[in-house]
Amino acid sequence: MDSLDVIPEGQHSYDEIFANEVTTGAYLNSCYDELPEFGIKYSWGTNLPIILTDDAWEYTTNTNYVGVAYKGMKSDKWSNKLIADNSNWGKGNRTSWDLFFRNIRRCNLFISRIDNAVVPTEQDRVHWKAEARVLRAYYYWELISRFGGVPLITEVLPVDYDGADLRRESFKTCADFIISECEEAMKVPEFPWRYEKNGEEIRMTKAIAAMVKSRTALYMASPLFCDGQNYWADAERITKESLDACLANGYELYTEVRNTNLYGDNAFYEYSTSQADYGPSPIDKETIWIAKFQMGGNASIKFNGLPSNGANKSGICPTQELVDAFPMKDGTYVLDLKEPYKDELHLEPNYASGTTYNPQKPYENRDPRFYAIIFYNGSQTMNKNQKMFDIWTYNGAKDGIKMGDIKRTCTGYYMRKYMRPDSYPGSWLKIHWRMMRLPELYLNYAEAAIENGNWKDAVDAIKPIRDRVKMKNINPSNQEEARLMVQNERRIEMAMEECRYNDIRRWTKPGEEMKYGGKHLTAMWIEKVGNTYEYHRCPIGQSYDKKTDSFVGTPWTRETYKSKYLLHGLELDEANRLEAVTGVNWQNPGWD
């Protein structure tokens, strides 16, 4: 089963498909057919889960896409870009609700047939069944992380089933099912921890099962989904089991730089811009799961790039809030983690006690991950002639900040993550989009341990992540400090990986607005004066007026910090259909 060739449903009877070992395997492959691709595979080369957090902003004249997302959405699939995306994985504007339940139906059918199917070996039978169970569990995790509790369907329903007896299960019930499925699959000896051949990299493994189990337990205990109950003891136990299992089976952080000429001693940077590799002794033992496509360096340059390198658009522009989150190299924080700003608009930073940050030299001596993730004023990259050049983001520079220009940064920063230092326009240096990697397991366990009262254990869990970038470990004095430090660590370690989109939601109680939802976001406006630079924080959307020494224009706003956006809305037609057949309102709060 080296390929992902799909047997189109309807061309053969199911009895015929499962009476042949080749087509049995091919049907399992079809369960992956509509697997999301993520990364830059969303419509128009952007990434909604990243730009709908406080980490980034994307300005575009395409008001049918990003503009709609920022200004507020309804639940029809044409305006709600969260549930229906025109990407390759959207498959013609199918909603995510429909997409994942279609895949679950395929998994249900395979699981119902595999015990009596013709297979190459009995080892394949038990392996494939475990694989299908984890894949189904993953699809359910995607659903509950978006919509909350959903119907648990584990049998093959008739094609003409109308759903009249369907009901939404609680998040806890769904979570228990997902965790149980992963645990049962992980008991199967024939089910591997990792694959060793190209072409198999997107298939389920025990490590993926451990991650799905860990995420589900963490989310189950989080304020948005816990229904007022305390599940942190379970979450701590489960996340620790998941981490320990992966560590015991060959997974480890990428800590050794191979190309010191390009990356110096920054192993995080090299890892973030490399391909995952396979074999009995892979160099990359950190990656748990990758997307089924590879990003070419040229694609990143085009869709999230610099005007001076011929980008189509500036794309995902990191915010000043994200830049502020990166500590200093000596471990001190730039801003107070509890109250980082003195004002609602984030224009008055509340500097952390003892910080070594210099506002006139804001990009010096920062956490090494900062230099792997963000292009800033004075950083470097390669041009089409394969020559290094300086990037200047000050007002008036070729790559300078400019509001309302699709090719210019609106925050004073450009995204660097996923771009190798030797990427240049026209290059096709391949980079894998990591959907799951080991640091998340450390972070999941650390968060659960803190919330269960064992915050000192969380400090030890964070240490390997900090060691990798040669940062001294966090040193909280109480539970609240530990919580803030680990949340910040999660933000910067997983930056631009779609993780924060879920985090800022699950940390919020139902009905509340998101504290980190991006109600007010800021840019760094830079003016060059002689050979020096003046740094001004300003609301995104405003521009500096030298004559009045003030910022003018109306700050750009977006609505997605509101409680409505804690969960995705069901597509309007589907919500109406389900209510008509069940007599129950299925729509999530705030959606119409």
Note the main sheet: 2 strands, antiparallel
**Radius of gyration of CA atoms, rounded to a whole number:** 24 Å
| Strand proportion | 5-15%
Count of runs of 4 or more consecutive helical residues:
19
> Total strand count, please?
12
Inertia-based shape: globular
Helix content: 25-40%
Low-confidence stretches: 1-8, 85-90
Q: Walk across the major sheet and give the strand order.
A: 1-3
> What class would the helix/strand composition place it in?
alpha+beta
Describe the protein's topology:
Elements: H1 14-17, H2 21-30, H3 48-51, E1 56-57, H4 63-71, H5 96-114, H6 122-147, H7 171-186, H8 206-221, H9 232-247, H10 260-263, H11 267-272, E2 287-296, H12 297-303, E3 317-318, H13 320-325, H14 368-373, E4 374-375, E5 380-382, E6 388-390, E7 414-415, E8 430-437, H15 438-451, H16 455-468, H17 479-493, H18 499-506, E9 522-529, E10 532-539, E11 543-545, E12 550-552, H19 572-582
Antiparallel strand pairs: 1-3, 2-8, 4-7, 5-6, 9-10, 11-12
Helix pairs in contact: 2-5, 5-6, 6-7, 6-8, 7-8, 8-9, 8-15, 9-15, 15-16, 15-17, 16-17
Textual characterization of the structure:
- Helices cover 36% and strands 9% of the residues.
- With 592 residues, the chain is an alpha+beta fold.
- The chain has a two-stranded antiparallel sheet with strand order 1-3. A two-stranded antiparallel ribbon has the order 2-8.
- It is globular and about 80 Å long.
- Residues 1-8 and 85-90 have low confidence and may be disordered.
